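Q: Here's a chain of 134 amino acids. Please give me its 3D structure as tokens.
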Amino acid sequence: MRLLHTMLRVGDMQRSIDFYTNVLGMRLLRKSDYPDGKFTLAFVGYQDEKDGAVLELTHNWDTSSYELGTAYGHIALEVENAAGTCDKVRELGGKVVREAGPMKHGTTVIAFVEDPDGYKIEFIERGSRKGASD
């Protein structure tokens, strides 16, 4: 078995594609409309689906926003420099909700941003995790 994708429901497909591709640097891998079901799927990621896990963005045509709930946590991305990545996200119009710095009760350098629908994305600075091997 292997992890294929994580699905997020989004209120505005183009806005979400723009965020994940232009702000976070992912590529749009594929996009399909399903008129009979009234939804669109888009897959974004840093590598092809055959090579690693990606995000599936799902837009139900009759829904413009969702309750995020309390069970969802976040998506984590490894970055070279968490503070620099936050600066770039901010420059591109993204929202930083936790500046880069050591995690509480640890030394791993992390930061958090939000996508346009409010989903949290954690940046984990490469090499800062205790026991991490690069």
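Q: Can you summarize the key feature?
A: The chain is about 15% helix and 40% strand.
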